[in-house]
Design goal:
This protein has 13 helices and 13 strands. The chain has 427 residues and is of the alpha/beta class. Bound molecules: glutamic acid.
């Protein structure tokens, strides 16, 4: 999901995540030794691998997997296929996963990776060979008890199925079945979890509802906009509209559309599916300039595309009272300062979009126990976990008199600090 934004004086996502960390670490007076551990990534794997294209030519791709920290359990986090994937992006995204899994209380650490490519340029069969060869190149650097990838930007259940099949396929037959949960977000027929597809968008809505509850309000009648109409953007919109909210603006990589009467997410999705996966020329809404997206007046805005979208240049246009981060790192640290000064609440990515990895955890457990869980059960468990995390963040925001992001970091880091203090550092 690519979006068109003007570049401000922003730094990269890696600098952003470190600045966010420093702010929380200072406020909670984090032990200096543990601070040193947490600003570093444990392992950074870069692989270059050749793949045969449909026309018989060879292309060499670069893939990444950064493993930030595994004090709380195996590394966990998605793989994205996008031209912006590089070592710094993978680092930042891996670090966010460590905070996210810790905040929600999952037995995982943080990892992230992907391949630097534009998947639109490749056929299905090329994407399959690229994925399988990437999996082969990663080899035993991933594994069901070591590092468990999942979908992220431009990756999906089909890609996870190819990874699981390749990873398990190169193991000996006696242990093959024990390796299929090397990835989560698989198709339901291949050990995937019923409800994992909607887990992230569902979690975004749970977070929004938790915030509204503080003010005795509900989502019904609230207007919202969404940037990015991939998996997260679609499902968040669908759940919100089903609960009576009104979707008045959508931006995807190809266009920005508005309709004050509200748009139907299901209609948008079927249009996009029949239109080369984009919303360009959608007939039931008006098209506006891409740069005007953030100035649409709405109660809630959901950035659900890429990082660093809300910047020093466009933050002043935002009129929403609440920004619910469906994407990872959509707001630069410079923009965030201004937004907070203007009284805009931000539900941070590591809380707001944690429904996805929580769903992944349930899928992993389901696979380990050879069970099949029902969607209602899954969504209920995700709601419980995220609501508990929300209450904790809210409590810490009050106690430290700080914003939700910093409070969420404090909650995440506290759990890691306890673990390190209990265990000590080997030898
Ligand atoms: N890519 C998602 C995220 O950023 C999900 C990760 C996972 O399920 O492991 O949270």
């Amino acid at each position: 999901m690519e979006t068109i934004v003007k570049k401000g004086k922003e730094r990269g996502m890696y600098e952003n995540v470190l600045e966010q960390f420093e702010k929380a670490a200072d406020l909670m007076d984090l032990d200096p030794g543990i601070r040193k551990i947490l600003v570093n990534t444990n392992n950074e794997i870069v692989v270059h691998f050749p793949v045969k294209m449909d026309d018989g030519s060879i292309e060499v791709f670069t893939g990444y997997r950064v493993q930030h920290n595994n004090a709380l359990g195996p590394y966990k986090g998605g793989l994205r296929y996008h031209p912006t994937v590089d070592i710094d992006a993978a680092r930042a995204l891996a670090i966010w996963m460590t905070w996210k899994t810790s905040l929600v209380g999952l037995p995982y650490g943080g990892g992230k990776g992907g391949i630097q490519l534009d998947p639109q340029k490749y056929s299905e069969s090329e994407l399959e060979r690229i994925t399988r060869r990437f999996t082969y190149a990663l080899g035993d650097n991933i594994g069901p008890d070591l590092d468990i990838p999942a979908p992220d930007v431009n990756t999906n259940p089909q890609i996870m199925a190819w990874i699981a099949d390749t990873f398990a396929g190169i193991k000996s037959p006696s242990v093959r079945q024990k390796n299929l949960h090397v990835v989560t977000g698989k198709p339901v027929g291949s050990g995937g979890l019923s409800g994992r597809d909607r887990a992230t968008g569902f979690g975004v809505v749970v977070s929004i509802e938790n915030w509204l509850k503080l003010k005795n309000e509900s989502v019904s009648g609230k207007t919202f906009t969404v940037q990015g109409f991939g998996n997260v953007g679609y499902w968040a919109s669908k759940f919100l509209v089903d609960k009576g909210a009104i979707l008045i603006g959508v931006q995807d990589a190809s266009t920005t559309i508005v309709s004050m009467d509200g748009m139907d997410p299901e209609e948008l999705l079927s249009y996009s599916q029949s239109n080369n996966r984009n919303l360009k020329n959608y007939p039931a809404a008006a098209t506006i300039l891409d740069e005007d997206f953030f100035s649409i007046e709405s109660d809630i805005m959901i950035p659900a595309a890429l990082g660093n979208q809300i910047t020093s240049i466009n933050h002043g246009m935002i009129k929403a009272k609440l920004i619910a981060e469906g994407a990872n790192g959509p707001i630069s640290t410079i923009a965030e300062k201004h937004l907070l000064e203007n009284g805009i609440t931000i539900i941070p990515d590591i809380l707001c979009n944690a429904g996805g990895v929580t769903g992944s955890y349930l899928e992993w457990l389901q696979n380990k126990r050879s069970e099949n869980w029902k969607m209602e059960e899954v969504l209920e468990r995700i709601e419980d976990k995220l609501s508990e995390a929300f209450r904790n963040v809210y409590k810490l925001a009050q106690a430290y008199d700080t914003d939700f992001r910093t409070a969420a970091y404090i909650a995440a880091i506290q759990r890691l600090e306890i673990t390190y203090k209990e265990r000590g550092v080997f030898p």
